[in-house]
């Protein structure tokens, strides 16, 4: 077991078991609550993949469907035990991962055993599949009714050819109807293997005691089959259409979605850590002190619905601006003019340093709270960022790195979707 220093008086212990499971333990002795999460590298994009050298496919939405079913694996409702112990348990599926997580104030060892018990063997029945199918179809219907989600998905479709980027995590009603016991066995065999998972624990625990407990658990002692590497291919080449208007009768407000695409060559440049760079850059460009914010406010084109955030994945990335507005024409004209000015805007080095310090400060402050520190470390691990050096790596971000992003705000990288009320 390795001990690594994250910050002064903040350490993480990590080890890899013989079955491939990676375990990270972040002890915080002064806190009452403990957080635990098991991450499976299986998400919404994994409907087309290579397992070893062989190509496989699954119905879209299989990862999300499996997440639902595994809460009642082998006929046991996992949440019942946690409720009896006043503990919270939940799960979610993203594009890249499925995460099962719980928090508790007592009986951590009992609950850790219960969580891992759920992933030793899998028993899916036609009855449980049919039951879950009905529930998930209702979820998908709710998404179908959301104009905001439709507008965002339309933006993704315009920007990217690859459906693994814009496909709904939950799949479609037609796709999930094809999920059966056989497809779920394939999914669990390929993805629910310890070598394709990692366990993170944050809170009032003794790392040595936890490792000793895990060494004895059937999830670790079981003889697992050999796991093959999982690979994906993706097409993020440019598309020709860069703007679209759709008129809708049944929407409450006009919706504008803008994407500033990070080109393929730049997103694949290993010298640039987009996970560390994107947030401070975008925070500075759209801060209350920025020209963009001030002009939108002055022209009364800014409201509470305005949002601007980077979207960074391991295989694509873009900057997203969203807005609900009663003045779509004026907003689009103004925001486009402001975005085209970004490459020529001189960035004050003092302001750059202030935003970089603020981003680092937020990360350090997260360690004052057991839940926030767990969320931060989990994100760093998912994004393959070195936990023990990320603060120093963030300090090394230069103004020159910011200029790399600044040059992206040109016509060829900007995509625009308008969902407008029909009169």
Describe this structure in words.
- This protein is an alpha+beta fold.
- 41% of the residues lie in helices and 22% in strands.
- The chain has 18 helices and 15 strands.
- The longest helix has 19 residues, at 126-144.
- The radius of gyration is 23 Å and the shape is globular.
- The termini are far apart.
- The mean pLDDT is 92.
Fraction of residues in helix: 40-55%
Radius of gyration: 23 Å
Structural category: alpha+beta
Whole-Å distance between the termini? 66 Å
Q: Strand portion, in percent?
A: 15-25%
Tally the helices.
18
Q: Look at the structure and give the mean pLDDT.
A: 92
Q: Estimate the global geometry from the Cα principal axes.
A: globular
Placed side by side, the strands forming the largest sheet appear as 1-2-3-9-4-8-7
Spans of 5+ residues with little confidence (pLDDT < 50)? none
Structure summary, number of beta strands: 15
Largest sheet: 7 strands, mixed
């Amino acid at each position: 077991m390795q001990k690594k220093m994250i910050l002064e008086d903040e350490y993480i212990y990590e080890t890899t078991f013989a079955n491939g499971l990676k375990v990270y333990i972040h002890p915080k002795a002064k806190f009452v609550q403990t957080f635990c999460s098991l991450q499976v590298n299986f998400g919404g994009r994994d409907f087309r993949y290579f397992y070893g050298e062989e190509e496989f496919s699954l119905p879209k939405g299989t990862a999300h469907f499996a997440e639902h079913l595994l809460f009642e694996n082998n006929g046991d409702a996992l949440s019942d035990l946690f409720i009896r112990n006043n503990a919270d348990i939940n799960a979610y599926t993203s594009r890249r991962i499925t995460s099962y997580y719980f928090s508790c104030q007592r009986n951590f060892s009992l609950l850790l055993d219960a969580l891992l018990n759920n992933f030793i063997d899998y028993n899916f029945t036609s009855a449980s599949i049919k039951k879950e199918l009905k529930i998930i179809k209702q979820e998908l219907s709710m998404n179908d009714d959301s104009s905001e989600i439709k507008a965002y998905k339309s933006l993704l479709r315009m920007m990217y050819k690859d459906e693994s980027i814009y496909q709904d995590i939950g799949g479609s009603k037609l796709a999930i109807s094809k999920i059966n016991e056989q497809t779920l066995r394939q999914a669990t065999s390929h993805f629910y293997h310890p070598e394709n998972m990692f366990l993170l624990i944050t809170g009032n625990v003794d790392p040595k005691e936890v490792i000793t407990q895990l060494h004895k658990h059937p999830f670790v002692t079981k003889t697992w089959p050999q796991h093959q590497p999982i690979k994906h291919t993706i097409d993020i080449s440019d598309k020709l259409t860069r703007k679209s208007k759709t008129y809708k009768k049944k929407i409450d407000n006009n919706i504008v979605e803008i994407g500033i695409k990070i080109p393929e060559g730049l997103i694949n440049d290993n010298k640039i850590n987009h996970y560390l760079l994107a947030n401070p850059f975008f925070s500075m460009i759209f801060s209350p002190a920025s020209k963009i914010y001030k002009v939108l406010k002055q022209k009364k084109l800014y409201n509470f619905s305005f949002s601007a955030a980077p979207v960074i994945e391991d295989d694509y990335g873009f900057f997203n601006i969203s807005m609900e507005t009663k003045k779509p024409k004026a907003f689009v004209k103004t925001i486009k003019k402001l975005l085209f000015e970004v490459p020529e805007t001189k960035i004050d080095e003092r302001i750059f340093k202030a935003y970089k310090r603020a981003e680092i400060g937020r990360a350090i402050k997260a360690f004052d709270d057991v839940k926030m520190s767990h969320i931060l470390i989990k994100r760093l691990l998912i994004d393959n960022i070195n936990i023990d050096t990320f603060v120093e790596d963030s300090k090394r971000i230069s103004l020159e790195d910011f200029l790399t992003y600044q040059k992206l705000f040109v016509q060829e990288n900007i995509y625009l979707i308008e969902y407008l009320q029909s009169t």
